[in-house]
Each structure stands twice: as structure tokens, then as C-alpha cells.
Amino acid sequence: MTAKPDSTHDAARRSWVASANTGATDFPIQNLPYGLFSESTGGERSIGVAIGDQVLNLRGVAEAGLLPEGCAAAARATLLDPLLALPGTELAALRERLVALLDAGAEERERLSPLLRAQNGVTMHRPTSVGNYSDFYAGIHHARAAGALLTPENPLPANYKWVPIGYHGRASSVQVSGAPVRRPLGQLPPAEVGGAPGYGPSGRLDLELEMGVVLGRGNARGEPVPVGQAAEHIAGFCLLNDWSSRDVQRWEMFPLGPFLSKSFATTVSPWVVTPEALAPFRVAAMARPEGDPAPLPYLLDAADQAAGGLDVRLSVLIRTARMRAAGEEPVVIITSNARHLYWTPAQMVTHHASNGCDLQPGDLLGTGTISGPTEAELSSLLELTVGGTRPATLPNGEVRRFLEDGDEIILRGRCERPGFAAIGFGECRGTILPAPGTAGEGARA
Amino acid sequence: MTAKPDSTHDAARRSWVASANTGATDFPIQNLPYGLFSESTGGERSIGVAIGDQVLNLRGVAEAGLLPEGCAAAARATLLDPLLALPGTELAALRERLVALLDAGAEERERLSPLLRAQNGVTMHRPTSVGNYSDFYAGIHHARAAGALLTPENPLPANYKWVPIGYHGRASSVQVSGAPVRRPLGQLPPAEVGGAPGYGPSGRLDLELEMGVVLGRGNARGEPVPVGQAAEHIAGFCLLNDWSSRDVQRWEMFPLGPFLSKSFATTVSPWVVTPEALAPFRVAAMARPEGDPAPLPYLLDAADQAAGGLDVRLSVLIRTARMRAAGEEPVVIITSNARHLYWTPAQMVTHHASNGCDLQPGDLLGTGTISGPTEAELSSLLELTVGGTRPATLPNGEVRRFLEDGDEIILRGRCERPGFAAIGFGECRGTILPAPGTAGEGARA
Q1: Which of B426, B284, B386, B343 has the alpha carbon at shortest distance from B135?
Q2: Where does the record place the Fumarylacetoacetase N-terminal domain (chains A, B) (predicted)?
Q3: Of A70, A92, A208, A339, whose CB is crowded by the most CB atoms within 10 A?
């Protein structure tokens, strides 16, 4: 069951952490996502809770004896997985306690203040261990737009409306926001059919706007997860940039799918936004157009259909090297919304475990690129520039078909609904470095 | 550089562990592979070395002060990864020391005897942590045979002779020999084009005969591995059964590749056979037929071409439930040889890291199904029965198109060369259990 809004969502509630009350950050007291941080000088990693522009050291809160007993041990861990794997009742109790502790009227203010650090003064780490990473293809507008570039007469695969299509990604490639992205070398498609491929820096480096689904409780090998229970396995959500090399991808992917075109880097935002925090922003699963088949029974749950979707406004910003040199701020190039996903996160979990695959705490699922139906919502450069044939012009006059060295890409996500405090996901950021062995002038297709 | 035969390969050498000298096991003193075991009563895991029908507790040897200093700490670990990540010089020194300690004339016999356990009296575990698992497609005869079933007019993908094709597998699915394999549920292809898919137990459950490449030293993110140095990253080899659900695969795999058709289980043999032990059995990389392109420069190394291949005789055996009930031994249904691989393990490593992907100690690569050019060497049932159209008859009269519940599949690998002691890989074994929620009568396509 997806959580319903409760007193922890009260829009009138304020925190004694002043920056949480301004609306200027993604992290009012109604959000409280979890992350993993260390002091910027180094030292042990701790679980942190984002509040305003601060991070609260959860280990410190546990050591002060202020957390519910059921989660105190996990709150002291140096990684997030055990906390996220706790039963939903424990996590709900933890959220309630944190709301009470951070409430403007809380008596614990004096004791907790020393446990705050400025977010811009700490080092954030990959939030979970990501033992396994799988990427779905649940953005139907992306699948259709990408398919149209390859097989215009039949853009959507025949299985699309039945199968939550996915593939296994490279777990070691998953890195936290801020880590740079080195342009990959790779085999590049032959100039003519039957010719020899090239080898060198990818000339068609792309971004993909996705959300990440972070798994909490796992399932035992051989034991599928009923769709009605799938939400209990989801610990939270983040933003995810599935960096892609389109030239490498086109040449390598037949017949076994994307490999090196994806595994050079995948960036996630540092905060795991909980299902509890997102409760007010759940929406019906994407309405299936007339004539679309109903999900097969193993993927169909009334509660999930009614409230399994996510209303998250997503955006992609770019800041080029020239913009950075000129002191200019990043500009938005794409906006979309997670409600455009054809499959719900619960359906992804259930499908993934349907063959008995054991999902594990801290595993990561990507949703697939979340394009919308309009041109402004095409959520990769492949789509936006129609395979590079219609270059995009930035406000400063620079032109992009694909990413250039020095380009910085930032994903943002924000939930807004009248009567509720707006919450957000923080940033998912990465800057392109030149390929190994190149002088830094980049590569152009 | 691939190791060359040295005194540790002396075929005349005998061990004070009598069973190592009979030729009846895979583990003479010239082999000495590493594994991870615990007492069958439970307790901590230890690294073990296979010798004859025994396993030597390497932690005990380290605690007795008998190992070279450089590897003593890693030898005491409760997982194999740190040991395998040691520099090649340390691993070579460890091998030499173990050969000396187990030699028939060794003075340490009395001290070491208490550290032996019968292999059939201990529990073997997955040898490494397998943080990441990737599966290649380097068996060209398999690629051609499998392709012929789908696109008879063009069986081999256009990129095949250029790209060491691979895809990311599911790390959590990798299990050690002996663990059962539950038949997966899944979406099954529609009976007619445009129809609805089915859902239920896979009716086309298959095996795939592969070898596993176990990684030792990793590479930093963004730093490719030159092919001339790739061998330094390979810690050893094992057998690998890439269980596959052909009906699920056919329906799900376009356009992003195999997913749930593979991730329900992947079985590996428990012993990591070292490159040092395999030195006498290295052969030239597969001779490329007239007209085949040379490997691109980043994949081409003279030493690797001369001795990067593996001469390992492989076999697949089956024992059905009826055979087991009748007390019958498993029978061989497939034989092949790892020298049929189109790409060398070094080429797989270099290609995998060419985009900057960080390979990590304990990672696992599958080679892909190693079919040979003859009918007896077709190394999956898909090929052997021509997609299920030509059922195979077992000696007891049973017929198989694909695997039935209760079928036990065993992979074996053996290296033989005149003048050298034969070495082997142990067994890679798994038995099919009925799908969840079925009474055990199995599923037939």
C-alpha cells in the first residue's frame, strides 16, 4: 500500500531550522530524505537527514537516545542499506520522530543543533551500496521517440504495452551527484554498411532524465513479489542521469542490448526521498489510451492503479564551459514529469522479481527516460535534436547536438500541490571531462 | 603477460595428500585452485585450496606463519576478493609456497594435516563477492547457431567480428554449484502476432555451457586497461551455467536485451583455477578464418594472440529424476572446448574497460556459450534440439527438448596435455525445481 498523507505533511508545520521554512530549498520539514555524508575533511560516513540547507547527523541523534528503538541500530550504520530495509512501520515511526524533533516547538533543539552541518560543507556519498542496478524503459514517449529514429514504421516494440522492459545495468558505474563524467572511448559505427568501425572518443554523448527507485526490503531467491506488496519493498526515490553514448550504443547493442554505451557513468542525486514524504504527490498510474491492453493480472493492483504514479516535475539544466567562464547560471533545456511513466514503480519491482530474481536492500532501479508528449518534454538530446539532425541553440548562442566537454548537466525534481508544502530531490549533477588521452578539445561527431 | 609453465607444473611432482596423486580428481598438486568454504556445521568462512579430494584451510596455513608475508593477511580473510586482487608476483609466490608445502617431501606435513577437510564434508560458497557480473557472447559457433534460428538469412550480427559483444548480467543471481534452480515464471510469447502474451512457468528452460573469468585487480573509473596488461587483472577461471528461459527471452529481449530470462539463476563452480595453473594449457587465440578482419588495435596484442586462448575440454552431463530414482549416473550430452572462443579473456577485459568502466576485484565475466563447429559441440539445448524441433533422446529412452523439473545438469572442465598433469575445474551443478505455485509436474512448452 502506498502511504497516505498524514500529520507529517501538515503544510503549516515549521522547523527550528530556519532555512527549512523559506521555500527556497527542496527540504522543508515535510520532506526529510536520507543520505550518506562525511565531513569534508574526511572521517567516517554517517546517515544524514536533509533539513533546509542543513544535514542532520542521524547517528548523533541515535547516540543521544532520541530515536525509536527499532531503528536506532540501523541509524548508526555507515551505510544506508540496513535502515532502508527496516519494516515500513519502523520507517514511519522514524519519520514521525524526526518531524517531532525538528518541529519549531521541539524541546530537543539545543541538543540537536550541534548535530547539524551545512549541506555545502559536507561530502555526500552514493546513498546506498547499489549491489545491483537495473534500468527500465517505462517512459513510453521516450520509447516511441527513440524507436522512431530507428524503425519509423513501427516505433514502439510489440511487447511494449505488456512487458515493463528493462535490462541489467552496471552497478559499479553508479556515482553520486558532483562526480565528473569522463567522455568514453569506444567502437564507433562504420561509415558504410560492411565497413570497419572506428575507435575513439564518443561523439554523441547524451543525458537521460530518469528517476531512480531505491529498494529497501529484499525478497528471497525464487519468491516473486505480489504487486499489492511491491510498495513495501520501495525505500525511496532519487533522480538519475543515465549518461549514454549514442554512437557506441548504435553499433554495439544488437542483439544483446546496451553495454559500454551506458556503463561508463550513471549519476544519482544524493538524497533518498521516502514514499512517506511523497504520499501527497501520488497520482493514478498513467491512463492507458483507448485500445491499450490492461496490465496482465500479476501486474494489476487496484491501489497501485489508483495511486502508484508519481507527480514529480522534472527539469534538465545545462551550463557550458563558456557559460561558467562568463559567470552565467545554468539554463533549463528540458522539463517533464514522472507521471508520464507507463509503468508504476510497484509494477517494475513485481516484474523484476516475477522470475524469482532476488532484489536486495540498496538495489537501484532506473525508470527509463521520462519524456512527455510535447517537444519541450523530450528528455534526452537524442530526442530533442532528432538524432542530432536539429541542433538546439542555447540562450548564449551556443549550439548543441550532443554534449561537449565541459558541459555541466543538472537534473532537478520538485513536487507541488495546493495545500501541501513543496518538496524536492536536490540536484543530480555531472560535468563532462575529455576522453582519456585527448587534449581536452572534445570530440564532435 | 600470460604465465609460462615452470617448476610448479612438473608432472612428476607428488603430494603427501595421497588422493592428489591418483589422477582421479581434478586437483593434483599442479592445480591448487582457491575457493571459499565453511564447516558443514556452519561457522566462519575460510579460503580453501583444493588438493585431491581435500580442501586445505588457507587461513590456518597463514596463522601457522607458513605463507609469504605479502599474502598472509589476505589469506586470512573471510572472502576471496582481497587475495585475488594481490599483485601477480604475490600470487605466484603463494602458489610456489603451496606447492612446496604440499609436496610429498615437505617437512610441514604434520603441521598441515589437521588443516585438511574432505571436500565432500564441507560447504562451498560463492567464491567471490561478484559485485558485478557481465556476460559476453564470444562463442562464435553459438552466436551463429542461435542467430540462424532467428534470422536464418543473416545469422551472425554485423558487429560480431569487431565487437566482443556482451551485456550486463544480474550479480545477485550468481550462485555456487549445488544450489537448486527454480523454474521461473514469466511472460510467454503470444501465440500469434499481435496477440496477448501468456504468463506462467517457462516451458523452454535451457542451460548454457560457459566459462567464468574471475577478476582480480581492478582499474580506476575512467582508466581503460591496455590489452597487453589485461592478463594482470584476471585472477582465474571457473565453469558457468547461464541458465536461460528461451520463451521469456524471445518475448522480452527486443530492444534492450535479455533480462528476466537470465536473472533467475547463474551457477558457477566453486573453485577459481588460477592463470598460473593453466599456463601449460594456453593456446593461440582462435584462428580467424580467411577474410575475417584483424582485431582493432586496442584489442590486439601479440602475446595474447599467441597464447591468450584456453584449451579446456568441457562437457555437460544430465541426470533426470528418473535416472536418479533408478540409481543411474549422469550421462554426457554435450562436449566442447574453450578454444572455440572468438575473443580471448584479455580482449573481454580490455573491451569492458575501454569506456572507462571500473572493473572490481571479484567481478565475474561469462564468456558466452562455448559451442564448437560440430553437432556434438552445440552447447545449449536451443542449439542441440534446433529450437526444440529435434528432441534429443537420452540413453534410457527419455526425450528432451528443454529441461524438465528434476533434471540435474553438471558442467565439467578438464585440461590435458602430454607431459603435464591433467587438471580440472570441479563441478558446476544444479537441479531444476518446479516453478513457484506449481505442484511439481513441471511445465512443457
Answers
A1: B343
A2: 30-127
A3: A208
